[in-house]
Amino acid sequence: MFENPAEGLSDSPERKNSSGHWRRWLAQHPGLGRAGQVARWVLVRLAALTGVILLVGLFGTFAAGWYTSRPEFCRSCHIMEPYYQSWQASTHRDVSCIECHFPPGFGGKVRGKLLGLVQLAKYVTQSEGPRPAAEIPDASCLRSGCHETRLLSGRVDFYGVPFDHAQHLGELRRGKRLRCTSCHSQIVQGSHMTVTTSTCFLCHFKEGRFNEGLGACTRCHQIPDKKFDLGGGTVFTHELAYERSVDCANCHGDLIRGRGEVPRERCGVCHNRQEDLARIDDHVFLHQTHVTEHKIDCLDCHLAIEHSLDRQKIQHAASDCAACHPDHHREQVNMLQGMGGKSIPRHTNGMVSVRLECRTCHRYKEEGPTGTVTWKASIQVCGACHEATALPALQAYHQQWKAALVALEDAARKARQALEAATLPEPQAKQLRDRLADVEHDLAFLRSANGIHNIHYASSLAQAIRDHLGELARALKLPPIDVKLPTSLPQWK
Asked: N or C: which end of the chain has fewer CB within 10 A?
């Protein structure tokens, strides 16, 4: 009897691989045979059970993948109902959601499903962000069978505007890389992935200059060939205006309304962490992150710019002072803020610090013969905030100030005449011309800005002007400057 089966096999080489030998050996050891049969039975059933589990798991995975890929599953989330309805009514209603929202390929689908599980986990643990957002990669739009030839199709007509996709997707626009969804977005109520014209207006008119640069009318519009009967036998055509270089803004300057600003509070709609706002003023980074890398609608951040005919043009034009008076009251505003002069640095004005503005003092209504209303200031208004005993001193100061300004202007004129008649080396002449130009600028500023808007800044500027005129007089061999400035400022209480 063999103590070791291997030894029994080794002494008969001709029967070494015989299955009969094993059967005889197991017959001689019945206990071992029964244990092997049990082990074999367990292994077979474990393998079968594992196979069943794997098959069920595989089937369940495919079934879950199929079910969660159906648009009806997306609809099960309450926030998705309006998007589902707009998709169902759109030209993409036969295209499944994941065909657009997942990048092409098996890897894109797996990644999309995993992100879905992450969102589910965040929802269950209540750790989700303030606003979930879905994105559509350009690869989904340009995949085979969809819009793969769009970049090669040339110009298309969009409501009478010739549009070329290649110029907008293949090149940088205003230094920014656009995506398909930059223009085809979801912000049009009741529409799904339609062109958002507000994006066009924001990009083309953001600089605020009508009929210039990207906002030039002929970039999008052809010269209309329609004839307009103005009555009395007068016929107008745009072709005639174009040939005579008549600016479109003369008649259509009201077509752009808004400036596309970005209110900072809009950042908080998506970002609820302070560190997310660390680079809020880095415009290049913001557009790279929000426009190029992620699909963020422009109007999520920017205020809209409107581009359409204004049915109340006359009423709006009449109330828009800046249309005819650009930078109106600029000098007075600069004086109030303690800036605008070239001879001295900026000064802080106490009236601005306490948030006074034009209407604080300009409270007396004056109506002209044509019905024009002007709101004027009066020294009596000062008594509302200051002691009435200081008002006479203010009046005296104002009179002295006006006389000193006339004297300074006269001294500047004499210096100009002497400088033009003088024969000086060019470096010295240039230095004197530059100094005198600054003096003349500051005098014109004092005349138009009215020093009463900031008496401390105006007095300092007048003192600097007098000193510069004195230097000019000495260099040009003129009599000394004898201009008396107000000796003291009113002491307000």
From this structure: N
Residues 166 and 258 in one domain: yes
* Dist CA 111 CA 119 (whole Å): 12
The pLDDT score that the predictor gives to residue 152 is 66
Domain stops at, among 20, 38, 68: 68
Same domain, 108 and 208: no
Q: Which of 241, 227, 287 is nearest to 262 (CA)?
A: 287
Distance (Å, rounded) from C-alpha 296 to C-alpha 476? 65
Question: What's the chain's length in residues?
Answer: 493
Q: What is the pTM of this model?
A: 0.53
How many structural domains does the chain have? 4
Dihedral sign of CA atoms 367, 369, 371, 374 in order: negative
183 token code pair: 């223009």
DSSP 257-276: E------GGGGGGT--SGGG
- Average pLDDT per run of 10 along the chain, which is 493 residues long? 46 53 59 62 80 84 76 79 81 82 81 78 72 75 80 79 83 77 68 78 81 84 83 81 81 81 86 81 86 82 86 69 76 91 88 78 86 84 76 84 92 93 90 94 94 88 94 92 78 56
- Distance from C-alpha of 202 to C-alpha of 114, rounded to nearest angstrom: 36
Query: Do 197 and 258 share a domain, yes or no?
Result: yes
Domain hosting 294: range is 150-224+251-309
What is the distance between the alpha carbons of residues 104 and 165, in angstroms, rounded to a whole number? 21
